[in-house]
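Much of our argument rests on the idea that a fold can be written as discrete symbols. The record that follows shows the chain in one-letter code together with its fold in token form.
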Amino acid sequence: MPTEAILSTARQFLGVDPTVPITLEPIKRGASGRTIVRVKTPLRDPFIGIHWTEQREDNEQFIPIGRFLKQAKLRVPEIIHERARYRVALVEDLGDVDLHSLRDRPFEERLPLYRSAFRQVDRLFYAKAPKELHLMPPFDAALYRWEQNYFFDHLVEDHLGLEADSLRKNPVFIEMAERLGAGARHLVHRDFQSQNLLIKDDEAWLIDFQGLRRGRQEYDLASLIFDPYMNHSRDEREALLELWEEIADERPETSLFHQCAAQRLMQAMGAYGNILKNRGDEWYRQHIGPAARLLEEVTAGTPLEEPLAPVLGAIP
């Protein structure tokens, strides 16, 4: 059992016998096939225990990537102990406050946290991964096509009950995947959104980074700026772009940025449909509408607008 593996690893790390009380408090976070708990003991401050399954290949990369990012001076939790053969890691406890939990605060109060997050993306852009570090396959045309098909399968067909073969065959999606996949190969987080940014000491810290790979920086930026969980207004998104421009001395080219946003939004909506069908987690249903409205906005006036119109029109 995952909790038993975490508990035995915690006892090994602490050097205590079974008579010493240790409490495991479940932490619900995302859909990554992992068990995450807060470990409490009278012997020291709490820490986080993570157990992963072999369900997803990227989970195996959590420990080596976490150590690399720490060495590269990015803000990530410290891995304090690990038993990789049992698929368990004990990591620093950064608390429970993520960027998403602050969504009801005034936007102006949250801007410094976005600045902190963008600085992490900028640092990641220049980080040099050692050759021996195993990363997930890079964002190429095939991966972008996989994301599109994920959307067609789980959102269009499974959730909406619409026909998706014409979308799969439509050359505009194929051409977009090829354009995006032919670009830069810098490191990207892959799931850079508000729930994966914990706030500690008024700074943003990265978590769930096991999917790190090479790709386009614009994909990470679009993931956060067009985050359906936050559903920013146009003016707020423009303010975030201006903030990024202050940090990077440039803003992404608009058509490319919007294509990255469209790609990411389709991936997210595919995930929502998949989770609703296969896990029955209704929390994700509320985010399909905001994601659809964002997707409609970034594809307006582009070749994607017409083929996506029946899909987006079917979403309340």
